[in-house]
Amino acid sequence: MVSSTFNERGADVGRRAALISGASFAGLATAYGLNRLGYQVTVVEAAAGLRRGGTPVDIEGETIAILEQMGLVELVRAKALPSRRFEFKNADNTTLGSIGVSGDQASEVRYEIHRDDLLDILFGAVANDVEVLFGRSISSLDEQAESVSVTLNDGKRRDVALMVGCDGNRSNTRRLVFGNGDQFTYFLGGYFFLKVVPETGLVAADTSEVFRAPGRMAMLNGYDDRTDIGFGFRTDAEIAYDYRDRAQQRRLIQQRCGDLGWKVPDMLASVAGDDDFYFDRINQIRMPCWSRGRVVLVGDAGYCVSPLAGLGGSMAIIGAGRLAAALERFPDDHASAFRHYEDELRPFVEQIQQRAADEGMSTMCPADEAELAARDREIAAGHMGW
Ligand SMILES: Cc1cc2nc3c(=O)[nH]c(=O)nc-3n(C[C@H](O)[C@H](O)[C@H](O)COP(=O)(O)OP(=O)(O)OC[C@H]3O[C@@H](n4cnc5c(N)ncnc54)[C@H](O)[C@@H]3O)c2cc1C
């Protein structure tokens, strides 16, 4: 690594600087890769700390290889969750069918880990080497010939060689660089709510339960110390709501799912009054190009595959690993590196997006009684498709 001398703006004149927006899977894994390549990395995260919560992340195949290169696989293995039993329920709580997943049926190595545990592991891997600024975001970007000039919401300016947008489905970087974010949003026709609460007694540990009605679903994931409470519902078009107004979103869940029956009244009671939850439209991000000049997108910001794909966390880590590999291959040519990153990764992303778009909603929330009955017959015959 080149030795450091700092100029008056805090920039290390001996190393190229890189700025990353978003400190989740894409941002932290990209920070690790760029730091290893010798960049002086700053991560800005809009939230006051790491954004916690959400369902566990599946880790397999290339994601394991990347975490191995980062020296993190042992830490992941130590936190891996036990095998999980998946049960599909009727309104009277009888089991329509069940499967065991995560390990016991899988032929290849596969881990499931709490989203928070993986965030902590990735943060621990960069915390000593990378500057992470919480409560900050980018206000404006100005690309020059040799650098990008970035102004933060505290008014400070940074001149960096590379800027990486890892700020998720509603990416600020995408909006600032590529224009109105919604032109790239491909709405899949529904919404997903998820809240992690202390163990509720509503579901056994290491078990998931799913109850589906036409256009709606409720889900419980049980662990020894916590319960995930999930709801999904279909809509023909996007609902107008203020994504910062959490009370309004809780009311939406109550209105859409409150009369579902099954264990839903108890589930809603366990999430009442707490604004710390995940709620978002189910959508994909489909862009014709993931980079512009010295700015490149990684993870949900550039190619969100949607919660229906079950691969969002892995895809973010794979994206970060592929970007670092491309920059290593073309060390002084970011344009070639960005092109290579996209050429290599895009076919895989599009394949996953297509599968989620074709099958995801009908699996999660069958549209009507006929589709639900067909899905229930598949479950009874042992073809779960979940
Ligand atoms: C709290 C939370 C819970 C989630 N729960 C689920 C779930 O249950 N099921 C599921 O399928 N997916 C869930 N997701 C989405 C899933 O984590 C992503 O698909 C996946 O992790 C991709 O990672 P990412 O790093 O690209 O994006 P994300 O994990 O979405 O991370 C984006 C990061 O950017 C930050 N950010 C946003 N705007 C700005 C800004 N203007 N400036 C700086 N930083 C910004 C966010 O705070 C966040 O830390 C959740 C995401 C979050 C943030």
UniProtKB/TrEMBL annotation:
Annotated keywords: Monooxygenase, Oxidoreductase
Signal peptide: none
Gene3D superfamilies: D-Amino Acid Oxidase, subunit A, domain 2, FAD/NAD(P)-binding domain
Name of this protein: FAD-dependent monooxygenase
InterPro entries xrefs: FAD-bd, FAD/NAD-bd_sf, FAD_aromatic-hydroxylase
Limits of the FAD-binding domain: 18-355
Oxidoreductase as UniProt keyword: yes
Pfam families xrefs: FAD_binding_3
GO molecular function: monooxygenase activity
